[in-house]
Fold:
Amino acid sequence: MSKKSIILLFILILSPALIYFLWPTDESRIKKLIKEGAKAVEKIDVETVMSKVSFNYSDEYGFNYIILNKILEEQLKKMSDITVEYENLKIEIKDHSASAELDVRVIATIGNDTGYIIGDIKNPEHIKFTLERERTTWLVIKTEGLEF
Structure:
């Protein structure tokens, strides 16, 4: 057997193992979605926030993707120095759907006033996101727990 054949055989055997260990799990993808979404809110980047939301979004308040986009644009324009804190993230995955529950606090400045916009120091807001897998990406299709 030549050196090229041995190397090719080694690569063919090693490739599936590398893919298995390096390919992100669904749970890690959802954690990344939550983290990137929180950072996008802090940066007031509505486009990035909405890239985490499915076009099929619908919630108990009657919001859909378009309405949610408009509300975020209007509300985030008024704010500055936004800090998003979350904890107790629990993820449950079932086939092509998942849920992510977490406790959230959001601090922001509106005009000259700085304070909690969502939750407070003693009582964070408990939020549940329902997600759906679209190809290899998870997107939010419903939000529960936010008080308007």
In short: The helical segments are 3-22, 26-42, 46-50, 65-77.
